[in-house]
Amino acid sequence: MVKNIKRYRKDLEKEGSPLAEKDENGRFIHLDFIPLTFMLPADYNLFVEEFRKNPNTTWIMKPCGKARGIGIFLVNKLSQLKKWSRDSKTNNFTPPTSKDTYVISKYIDNPLLIGGKFDLRLYVLVTSFRPLKCYIPLKCYMYRLGFARFCTVKYNASVNELDNMFVHLTNVSIQKQGEDYNAVHGGKWTVQNMRLFLEGTRGKEVTDKLFDEINWQTVHSLKAVSGNISNDRHCFECYGYDYIVDDNLKPWLIEVNASPSLTSTTSSDRIMKYRLMNDLINIVIPPGQMPDVRWNKIPQKEHLGYFDLLFDEELAQQDALNMDKKLGPGGMVRGRKDGSRPSPATWK
């Protein structure tokens, strides 16, 4: 995902797209939504160069071939990687596999805290991508019943706590091993409760902006990989998106799970995931209809359940075409004195 997003940004920059605009420090204004990330051991030298620019930075390492928080650790010294680097070296004839590869990212050390650190798990259904050689428009849906996962131990950025995974990792498989884990609520809030809390403490405007940013990031992350996905009209994908929100209410995309866990730890968790699967199937195969690969329409509203249409590339292109027809001399929209544009048929 990281390599595709980097390539996506470079392509937009070459095209002169306003989405690739940068600030005075050379950082992307609209597409800066993933922490600085490298692949090890392939990018080890690049990582060392970046590390020496900011030697007091903390980094988080994740193995590519594992899940549920297994094998994740934090580092703040190059010496902590030396043994790992030596053990990871292979000869020219046996390149490292996905199980040998690690992702190392700059740690978000200023997370928004609500009692402790948390992240958001959101579910995104993709019913079609747009490969390079086949016109099948990107279409995706966001599920409203995601949840926030909380750490059971109060957040502490001290270097003495770098090895305390109960402070830094929100994975339920990690947290449920702790003494403070509550099996009743499972250390989770629904997204609706999280949104209500933020509206009450930070205001509705900034909360709406936060979730708009999450939607924006989700759509562009899918656009970034759409050309590399082997699309099959008989298939669909349900991804688990993980976001961390910093104390400036900026969301950061930290991981996309191709096979998100559907196991439940609480009764409310089980009900939510049952609804997720039920609503997902109702979109892929609308009730009362036979499966048909040629069917590529948006289901009726009553069949969407808790899903919302996040982006439909076909509708977006139709919006752009209709807007071009409505634009009058001087770029004004016909029938509107202020030149403002009507609401698009799709999000963003």
UniProtKB/TrEMBL annotation:
Keyword Cytoplasm among record annotations: yes
GO biological process: microtubule cytoskeleton organization
Any single Gene Ontology cellular-component annotation: microtubule
Location relative to the cell: Cytoplasm, Cytoskeleton, Cilium basal body
Catalytic reactions on record: (L-glutamyl)(n)-gamma-L-glutamyl-L-glutamyl-[protein] + L-glutamate + ATP = (L-glutamyl)(n+1)-gamma-L-glutamyl-L-glutamyl-[protein] + ADP + phosphate + H(+)
Positions of region (Disordered): 326-348
InterPro entries reported for this sequence: TTL/TTLL_fam
Predominant location category: cytoplasm
Top-level taxonomic group: Eukaryota
Pfam families reported in the protein's UniProt record: TTL
Gene Ontology molecular function: any one: ATP binding
Keywords for this protein: ATP-binding, Cell projection, Cilium, Cytoplasm, Cytoskeleton, Ligase, Microtubule, Nucleotide-binding
Family of this protein: Belongs to the tubulin polyglutamylase family.
Subunit structure: Part of the neuronal tubulin polyglutamylase complex which contains TPGS1, TPGS2, TTLL1, LRRC49 and NICN1. Interacts with PCM1, CSTPP1 and LRRC49.
Name of the featured protein: Polyglutamylase complex subunit TTLL1
Organism this protein belongs to: Mytilus edulis
